[in-house]
Amino acid sequence: MAAFKRPGSGGFIAAAAVLVCLLVIHMSPRPPAQQHEYLGTFPPIDRTVMSRRGSSQKSIWNVQSLVHWKHCEWWTAKPITGPPVESNGYIKVDCHGGLNQMRRDLCDGVDVARLLNATLVLPNFDAASYWNDTSGFADIFDVDYFIQQMKGFVPVVKELPQELASKKPVRVDCRKQKGHFDYIESVLPSLVKHQYIIITPAASQKIDRMDSALQITSFGIYNSHPFYAKAARCHACFRALRLVRHLELKGAELLQRIPQPFLSLHLRFEPDMIAYSRCEYTGLARSSLDAINAARNGRISFSGEAGLAWRKRGKCPLTPRETAFILQALGIPTNTTIYLAAGDSLLEWKDFTSVYRNSYTKSSLLDKASLMGLPGNSRAALDYYISINSEAYIGTYFGNMDKMVAAMRALSGRPNTIFLNRRAFAEAVSQGLNGVRLADYLWEAHRDALVDGRGSALPDCFCMSNITDSH
């Protein structure tokens, strides 16, 4: 991806049931003629028409919202009950996946530790299977700062006491736990008995759905966990974690090299992402298709009617070409300076940069030697740092990084944040819309979402408030 410019060169359905239904559709006999085969492409953009439309089209950032997101008062304004003096034992969290997934796992672990009156042991970040990355918590986050910030919420230690360090830990899978009493009945006995357990926290996506469904006031009622446990989680996630000094300095250096003002775009179209999504694409380069097929590793992809149904549920990552089209539809000028917060394995990126030519990445702004010394987690941390400090942020998938970035931007008063609507795009294309008609449809869908707050919705710890002033 070294060809990027350098400065100066210019609801809620169980996933298993959905998969079974799609597999039935996928394996059912089909007539030879496919009436609704979605090819993942659409007619080429008429640049003349789009440019004329763009001259009179206001930017999506000028849309007035009736609501905005801010941190909930129940974890910032109310006195929080501190932990008892005596701990029930030590808990360590299994953290897997990308950087922001592991960060969310840690935050969930803080919640559990406070709930069970346990001492939290700093986790190991298991990114080896994800990025071949052996960096740990202390390589990314300021350990001493985290421990200091968590005082009064959850006691945190770097290492186990000597009498427990040599013991084999008991592993407890918490992914099926739903509420306060599930943990008290199922997890606490193991903690008290063994004094040291390693937990696999509940899936963050499930927590988000529970929180969204149960939110009722600006003070929030998010799930059955007590407020003191939820407050510990919120504080850990959004106030106690900061990057180590050398990464903050590298991030500041990178930020200074990006022409200001700029938009940060989290573009997700990597082979593993596409393989995980189970989506099929045509019209891609042979090298891209080969990379995707290699990453599938036996995963079943959906095509035909099943593929269309899956895509219309918003499950398929947007291609760089589709992303460029949507940005144009939202009135974002093609001369906008854009930082691509993306991995080195991003596919088809030239389809985006051929439209938005003022695009930059870490690789185009930092020298090769500087990047060579940074493992995957550290590179992701730089993208995170840039994204929370950009004038505007757009996420194309609403994954873990998008949720974290949007939350931190709301916390610091940066309102220009939006997530592209994959479901609306797929629905419109399946109806045969293209060109200006498609652009108008997408504009209206994203405008409506911004007006009522859905276009920048945040996970737990943040609440929606009514506003009368414009952004």
Task: Give structural notes.
The chain has 471 residues and is of the alpha/beta class. It is 45% helix and 10% strand. The protein contains 23 helices and 14 strands. The chain has helices spanning 15-27, 47-56, 99-115, 128-131, 137-140, 143-149, 162-165, 180-186, 188-194, 204-214, 227-238, 245-257, 271-277, 286-296, 304-312, 320-329, 350-353, 362-365, 368-372, 376-389, 400-411, 422-430, 435-451, and strands at residues 67-71, 90-93, 95-96, 119-121, 125-126, 156-157, 170-173, 196-200, 263-266, 338-340, 359-360, 392-395, 417-419, 462-466. The strands form four sheets. It has a five-stranded parallel beta sheet with strand order 6-4-2-8-7, with helices on one face. Strand 10 (338-340), helix 17 (350-353) and strand 11 (359-360) form a beta-alpha-beta unit. Helix 3 runs antiparallel to helix 11 (227-238), helix 12 packs across helix 20 and helix 20 (376-389) runs parallel beside helix 21 (400-411). The chain is globular, with a radius of gyration of 23 Å. Mean pLDDT is 82; it is low at 9-20, 22-44 and 205-223.
What attributes characterize this protein structure?
5-stranded parallel beta sheet; globular; 45% helix; 14 strands; 471 residues; alpha/beta
Please specify the SSE layout and strand pairing:
Blueprint: H1 15-27, H2 47-56, E1 67-71, E2 90-93, E3 95-96, H3 99-115, E4 119-121, E5 125-126, H4 128-131, H5 137-140, H6 143-149, E6 156-157, H7 162-165, E7 170-173, H8 180-186, H9 188-194, E8 196-200, H10 204-214, H11 227-238, H12 245-257, E9 263-266, H13 271-277, H14 286-296, H15 304-312, H16 320-329, E10 338-340, H17 350-353, E11 359-360, H18 362-365, H19 368-372, H20 376-389, E12 392-395, H21 400-411, E13 417-419, H22 422-430, H23 435-451, E14 462-466
Parallel strand pairs: 2-4, 2-8, 3-5, 4-6, 7-8, 9-10, 9-12, 10-11, 12-13
Antiparallel strand pairs: 1-14
Helix pairs in contact: 1-15, 3-11, 12-20, 13-14, 16-23, 20-21, 22-23
